[in-house]
Design goal:
The chain has 6 helices and 26 strands. The protein is mostly beta strands. The chain has 4 domains: 11-144, Sandwich (eubacterium ventriosum atcc fold); 147-231, no CATH class; 232-306, Antifreeze-like/N-acetylneuraminic acid synthase C-terminal domain (Type Iii Antifreeze Protein Isoform Hplc 12), CATH 3.90.1210.10; 315-366, SH3 type barrels (Roll). Strands 13, 15, 16, 17 and 19 form a 5-stranded antiparallel sheet that branches. A hairpin with a 5-residue loop joins β8 and β9. It starts with 10 loop residues before the first strand and ends with a strand.
């Protein structure tokens, strides 16, 4: 029988048998020694309010039980009723629901149930009552909890986000979008663990940071904090327009671009090329523009592609092999190609084309 509910005061009216494993009917004597048939075997007084430390509910947690049979008392007190509600979200159980649950799991009847049982001969007879219910008509069940301020969660998320941004920018600003709610957690040693942000991700105007709450090294719940973000870094910006296919080398970087500090969250596509990389790794001409670069536009990875090993319209060194004989010549490249690709080339003075495999920068090879 599940009693946890997100609403603070919701009465459960149905027996939820799927919440706990089936419990075999308790083997209970019809009457204890010296007990008259009219006297209940067990008296159960339901408590109006209960606060639990554990994660599951037993009948003995929410009621006072009285019986002359010790074995019966122990079994009924240990009868499971379901999981306890989440900390900070009390739940209600009414007495009728609990009574039906106990009857189904114990084989006993209540004073007011009017139930009958069938004998071996098939005749019906009234069974004397076995349980008398008293006390509250419903019980409020609350989980013992500790309250963790929402600001503590926000601070943990902010610290992790700023650390992530510091690896991608020279300065950053983050501001939570809304006030975080306090967390109600079970008693114990609390630890907050911020989920790592993806290394390949880029700063955006709004960023979501997930924080997991653990109590005594056990995961309890997770919550998300949304931030407004600003992150500035020096990047390469086009000073003039540059056409598609231009090789990104020292000449282009010096004459057509400049370094400017830009808010990275304003970039829509690609990873920005920082000034240090543009002046070093890219100056060797190993990359070129796959699309035009407009004036004032930030140079990003979306603009770039690897420069082909051989370029259309350029000359390449051709090596042709046939057994132990090899011939070298100079050919005109008719299409761009990267290492390992097959491209069309033309031998000077010949009207036909030859297919050759690119073996390196300015190098192609023909094999039989």
């Amino acid at each position: 029988m599940a009693c946890a509910n997100s609403s603070a005061r919701v009465a459960l009216r149905a027996v939820c048998t799927a919440a706990v494993p089936a419990v075999a009917a308790l083997a209970l004597p019809a009457f204890a020694a010296g007990q008259s048939p009219a006297e209940p075997l067990v008296s159960i007084e339901l408590r109006p309010q209960v606060k639990l430390d554990q994660s599951s509910i037993r009948l003995g947690d929410i009621a006072y039980l009285t019986t002359r049979d010790l074995q019966t008392l122990r079994r009924l007190m240990a009868l499971p009723l379901g999981p306890a509600p989440r900390p900070g979200s009390p739940a209600m159980l009414d007495r009728d629901t609990i009574a039906r649950w106990v009857e189904a799991r114990s084989g006993l009847q209540t004073v007011d149930s009017g139930l009958r049982v069938q004998t071996v001969e098939g005749a019906l007879r009234a069974q004397s009552p076995a349980i008398r219910w008293t006390g509250a008509s419903e019980t409020e069940i609350e989980r013992a909890a500790q309250q963790l301020p929402g600001e503590t969660v926000v601070n943990a998320a902010r610290s992790a986000l700023l650390n992530w941004l510091s690896q991608r920018s020279v300065r950053a600003e983050v501001e939570p979008v809304s006030t975080a709610r306090d967390l109600f957690l079970p008693p114990g040693a609390t630890t907050l663990r911020v989920r790592p942000l993806a290394n390949q991700a880029q700063p955006t105007r709004r960023m979501l940071v997930w924080v997991d709450a653990w109590v005594d090294d056990r995961f309890v719940r997770t919550t998300a904090v949304t931030f407004e973000v600003g992150a500035w870094a020096p990047v390469t910006v086009a000073a003039t327009g540059v056409g598609r296919g231009a090789t990104v080398d020292a000449v282009l970087l010096r004459g057509a671009t400049e370094t400017r500090e830009v808010d990275l969250t304003t970039l829509r596509q690609g990873k920005p090329v920082v000034a240090a990389k543009a002046g070093g790794e890219m100056a060797d001409g190993s990359e070129r523009l796959r699309r035009p670069l407009r004036p004032g536009e930030v140079l990003t990875s979306a603009h770039l592609e690897a420069t082909p090993a051989v370029l259309r319209g350029n000359w390449a060194h051709l090596l042709a092999r046939s057994g132990d004989v090899s011939v070298e010549s100079r050919v005109e490249v008719l299409q761009d190609g990267r290492q390992g690709q097959v491209v069309r080339v033309k031998v000077p003075g010949s009207s036909g084309e030859v297919l050759a495999r690119v073996t390196g920068p300015g190098q192609v090879e023909v094999q039989p």
